[in-house]
Amino acid sequence: MTKLEIGALQALCAIHDHGGVSRAAAVLMLSQSAISHKIKRLEDALGCALLDRRPGHPRFTEEGAKLLSYARRILALHDEALHALSTEPLSGRIRLGVTEDMTSGGVSRVLGRFTRLYPAVSVQISVAQSRVIAERLDRGELDAGVFQVFASDLRKDDVTLIEDSLHWVKSPDLVLDMARPVPLLAFDDNCFYRDWALHHAQQPAAGFRIVMECVSIAGMRSAIRAGLGVTLLNGRHIEAGFDVLTDPFPPPPDLAFVVRTGPKARNATVMALIRIVAGERDWHIEKDVGKAS
Q: pLDDT digits over 193-234, tens only?
């Protein structure tokens, strides 16, 4: 009977979470050949390819993506069993930064489960914007963070939870006159969406005119529905009925929701939380992207 090796399942998840064999090898502190050998043995045992090694194709085959879901559940149970039988339970404090949009879904479930598994660990949560969390991690003020980055800014140790896209959106009731400055709904100065739109993207011919600044996703969507202006939203927050704009607006960069640890925070307690965060199956929520316009 075919058996699934824990090490091979860890390698499979690391390849997905860190974006390839070389990065997985660095995180697991193994050679690239060792990672490749683990995956090859797993493929031989199962009789199917798990990775698509052709350039330009998705990294995982259909079978590989299916096994990945099982692997996360198996590894989570594996960690629970080790914890239950451990004579040295984890303790201490974790300073965790999360963004507003992640507090109502997966993060809450993860923290509830983590608290039940590790009651001696105290988790102190700070809710802030992505750029603030990243900066506090780099300064050592947080141990871990769950937030957004542009896909091009991923670091080798980041664990990707969700891949998403960024869109220009407005209400169907808002008629734009591109000969005049475009009314812009903007998050505050700490928002990297705003920074890209105002300082890195190609500007409309007449430029932008900021008509509202708001740090709340709920407030931003309310302003869009009222037809106050155009803004940038990720796919998770686009409501049915919003217009998704293309020309003449420049295509925004791709996004990734990640969990990242601080430079000196990769201890057993923090890594236990990271494993549970990465193993959460329900990060993806239904999203309704409005009609292209």
A: 999 999 999 999 999 999 999 988 889 999 999 999 999 999
Predicted TM-score of the model (pTM):
0.71
Tokens representing 109 are 């479930």
Tell which residue, 199, 195, 166, 170, has the closest CA to residue 182: 170
**What CA–CA distance (Å, rounded) separates 286 from 289?**
10
How open is the CA angle 222-228-231, to the nearest 5 degrees? 75
User: How far is 260 from 274, CA to CA, in rounded Å?
Assistant: 8
CA–CA dist 45, 29 (Å, integer): 24
Interval 92-131: pLDDT, tens? 899 999 998 776 666 777 888 888 888 889 999 999 999 9
